[in-house]
Amino acid sequence: MNNPFVYGEIAVGKAFVGRKEELADIARGLQAGERIFLISPRRFGKTSLIVNLLERLKNKGLMTAYIDLYRAASLEQLAALFAEEVLLKSETRLETLARLAREIVPLLRPKITVEQDGQFSAALDIGKSKSEQSAALAELFDAAEKIAKKRGKRLVIAFDEFQEATALGGEPLEKLMRSVFQGHHNVSYIFSGSKQHLIADMVNNKDRAFYKLGRVLFLGKIPEKDLRVFITERFAAMGATVDEAAFRRILSEADSIPYYVQYLCSFLWNKCREGAGLSEKLVAETAAHIADTQAPLYVGMLENIPLKQRKILQVVSRNPGEKLYSHEVIERNRLGPAPTVQVSLNLLIKKGILEKENGGHVFCDPFFRLWVVKNSLLKSV
Ligand SMILES: Nc1ncnc2c1ncn2[C@@H]1O[C@H](COP(=O)(O)OP(=O)(O)OP(=O)(O)O)[C@@H](O)[C@H]1O
Ligand SMILES: [Mg+2]
């Protein structure tokens, strides 16, 4: 019997929980030609949602493409990735690339390199000068609309880790993408990324190219009722019962964040498999054990955090959600001048350690929070 809880991979098939409404809503929007920005804190399940969504749309007869911008380290690689995912999805041979490039995007020349390990790597020669590159990329992106029109089918393109477009090509690339995508009527786009504040800025900042280019959708946590069914059924299948106290503790230790819920349940499942009884106590012990095993990572993280910010982490660790902007809280915890607290909080958010939630602040990693609370060094608040 395989462990049914998946973490650190895209959740598909039976491992995918809930998200029925989101799937239906986004699928409807994309089918109608919408552009959608999907925003959430890290590890809430954006990629899993997108992959399941594209599968669903493909089954409905639409064409789909998934582009993970983390896979591209240059504009040439972005071009190759786009060509591979959008132009070549159903074709496999390298010659097809040449033919397609000749017929659909004549400005591009395929550049196949044999790497030291004998593997082929494909890139597209998009020219050297900035204007050559822009023209080639515009033509390539436009090929998506041509293909969709030619086949008489809507094409849905998902850009994951979209904030990387800025690193890859800066403002000129963003502007170019906007002007091309805006003219497409047979292609729908969904943009998402793990750096929430960067994606949010791209779409909310009126000085940026993607300002108001589409509907912004905030992905929340998976509702409790879906998790309750999923978790109790998976444990029941191996003979363990999850009582209400244990279930509540799973949610609170993992802060109901999809990744950490699965992570904790996966460990618990292994323990039950070895004969342990599932109880609230076991959940608490397992969470503490996970936090301990992550100590080297957490120590490394703390080393890069200045003292002022560490103090803030101590306060948040004990009072998740506390509104650190309030004078009373700042005074009580002796955090120093309010503007400095503000700067520190913003830096901690930028570093991906804290997240805003309901006007307060919480840890992105609930096991890091647990570790900070437990760590004796930090008891001096
Ligand atoms: N709908 C879901 N059903 C089951 N598990 C899920 C679901 N969504 C997310 N998870 C859990 O969360 C983990 C992270 O999911 P995913 O990679 O999709 O999130 P993400 O928001 O794209 O993360 P990142 O911001 O780091 O890119 C998965 O490996 C899985 O454990
Ligand atoms: Mg992701």
Give your account of this protein's structure.
The protein is α/β, with parallel strands linked by helices. It has three domains: 19-87 and 138-218, P-loop containing nucleotide triphosphate hydrolases (Rossmann fold, 3-Layer(aba) Sandwich); 224-293; 296-378, Arc Repressor Mutant, subunit A (Orthogonal Bundle), CATH 1.10.10. Helix content is 53%, strand content 12%. α3 runs parallel beside α5 (130-151), α9 (244-253) runs parallel beside α11 and α13 (307-318) packs across α16. The longest helix is centred in the middle third of the chain and has 22 residues, at 130-151. The model has no long low-confidence stretch (mean pLDDT 88).
Keywords:
single chain; 381 residues; alpha/beta; Rossmann fold; Arc Repressor Mutant, subunit A; 3 domains; 5-stranded parallel beta sheet; two-stranded antiparallel ribbon; 16 helices; binds adenosine-5'-triphosphate; binds magnesium ion
